[in-house]
Amino acid sequence: MTDFDYVKKQISITDVIGHYVHLKQRGNSLVGLCPFHNEKTPSFYVSPEKGLFYCFGCKVGGDVFTFLMKLENLTFVEAFKKAASICGVEVSSEFENSSKDQVLRVLKEAGAFFTENLWKESGKDALEYMRSRGFSDDFLKEYEVGFVPEDASELVERLKRLSFSEDIIYKSAIFLNFKEGILRLSGRVSFPIKNVENEIVAFGARLIKNEPDSPKYLNYPDTLVFRKKNALFLIDKAFEHIKSLRKVILVEGYLDALMMHQKGFKNTVASLGTTLNPSSFKRIDKLVDRLIIMYDSDDAGKIATNRLLNMTDQFTCNLSVASLPEGLDPHDVLTKYGKGAMERIVQNYISGVDFRINLIFSNPSNTIESKRQKYRLAIRELQNLGAEEIEEFVKKVSEKLHVPESRILSDSERMSRKKISGEKIFYNLVNYFDRHILRTIIERPDFYFLLKSFDYSMLFNDEEYLQAAEEIFNMDSFDIDDNILDLSDKTKAKISQIILEDVPIIPDDQWEEILQLAWTRKNMFLLKENLSKDKDAMIEFLELAKKEKELSSKIARING
């Protein structure tokens, strides 16, 4: 048994999660208030037997290492060591000096290689592109912007000379195929993504010319040392300025953040996309008084801003919003209108409450139906507010809609009572079957191998459950204890969910009906396109619909 396997068996998910969450026994599970979102009714469940957790409120789930990685913004290695420490288990020095340091060294070498290439003939177009976007040569050098060439032979030789194993190089995610020398980000401008300690943990990249079939920006996959949701671009450069100014500006793009720094707004960081975990700010939250969110002014940016504001209770600092002119991003403002215009935008930030109010009342219409819609939106939004925001929000809604504050609070309370508590979750018939099938293939090796050789896609109606099944079937065999670490976070969450719901395994005598139902639904799906044109197709579809109803009734006893 390896040191890793030994330590893993000594780690108790109950002890680790109990270190952060007050858990109470409920049946075979433990339950508590979720640490990943604000809630008053417990919807966070832990299965000590299976070593899994799942929140029925925010849909986060997985094993003990997923929990620590998400909550503490840790790499896998750090989460492993943290769990071992909480459980009082010693980790050997061999593991301490494991993959993480070597992966960081590979990334450092790659970063140097990319930076060198920006100033070579191969990087000529990339350099011209960055200059055309308003960046000076000195700035590009200081911020280690690079170019990822098609020819990786020099980097391959460099890594071989330094005796890095193929396994470590693979774990760094630099290459799509190391043996063939195919780099993941080839042909793009590269931006090193660093941690607070100034270590490169990943790279971002942008196309030099927009190509219809290729994404403009390419993000790095999660690795031993990098978690996209927990990363902040330019935190290494911004950290001391953030501490000094006690204020941080958050934008959503590489070029936006870089231009903010070039123009003097050095307390700016960027999220990698619009999905962000509050734990990203763990190192700086208590060092600042205010986080100013300055996402793009498009719909995606507004939705992401609202999502982050809904997590206000997970921050110590105040959350505010700096609104950009419609259709412009920070880079546009700085290059078209200058530093003064950006200073006015940053200084004129508004509160989270005012941002929500502006969003709800953006439609100037005053029809009765429009007012009803705004009221419904306001009641729904009220569910997401922190305790200190409710009074101000209710007062402003009352003034705009001429509705008594007492009625707004009463309607909000009534909606809260209707919300799912997490104790009982209802599903439609479609993923009702998907859940049972997924539970069966992870618990029954005989059905795992049976379905692996079968066209199992016919059994799934929900794309997420199908993707989870595909991930599981891609393995030679599957055992929860041995293979859970090899799964994506999304699949871990699915498995955690169905186990903590105690979804029953499909009995042997139900499989014939299950397979018949799969074929029936598949044929109904194929017939749908021709219903309006083909009379025979309509007749066949109706017959299949009747058969589907009969089969569904039979299988419904699974949950009885």
UniProtKB/TrEMBL annotation:
S-adenosyl-L-methionine as UniProt keyword: no
Cofactor binding comment, as recorded: Binds 1 zinc ion per monomer.
Zinc fingers (CHC2-type), renumbered ranges: 34-58
GO CC terms in record: cytoplasm; DNA-directed RNA polymerase complex; primosome complex
Catalytic activity of the protein: ssDNA + n NTP = ssDNA/pppN(pN)n-1 hybrid + (n-1) diphosphate
Cofactor(s) listed: Zn(2+)
Keywords noted in UniProt: DNA replication, DNA-binding, DNA-directed RNA polymerase, Magnesium, Metal-binding, Nucleotidyltransferase, Primosome, Transcription, Transferase, Zinc, Zinc-finger
SUPFAM superfamilies: DNA primase core, Zinc beta-ribbon
One of the protein's GO biological processes: DNA replication, synthesis of primer
One matching Pfam family: DNAG_N
Gene3D superfamilies assigned: 3.40.1360.10, DNA primase, catalytic core, N-terminal domain (3.90.980.10), Zinc finger, CHC2-type domain (3.90.580.10)
Domain of life: Bacteria
MF (Gene Ontology): DNA binding; DNA-directed RNA polymerase activity; zinc ion binding
Domain Toprim: from-to ranges: 246-327
InterPro entries per UniProt: DNA_primase_core_N_sf (IPR037068), DNA_primase_DnaG (IPR006295), DNA_primase_Znf_CHC2 (IPR036977), DnaG_bac (IPR030846), DNAG_N (IPR013264), DnaG_primase (IPR050219), TOPRIM_DnaG_bac (IPR034151), TOPRIM_dom (IPR006171)
EC number: 2.7.7.101
Assembly and oligomerization: Monomer. Interacts with DnaB.
Recorded family membership: Belongs to the DnaG primase family.
Function, in words: RNA polymerase that catalyzes the synthesis of short RNA molecules used as primers for DNA polymerase during DNA replication.
Domain comment in the entry: Contains an N-terminal zinc-binding domain, a central core domain that contains the primase activity, and a C-terminal DnaB-binding domain.
Name of this protein: DNA primase
Organism of origin: Thermodesulfobium acidiphilum
Gene field: dnaG
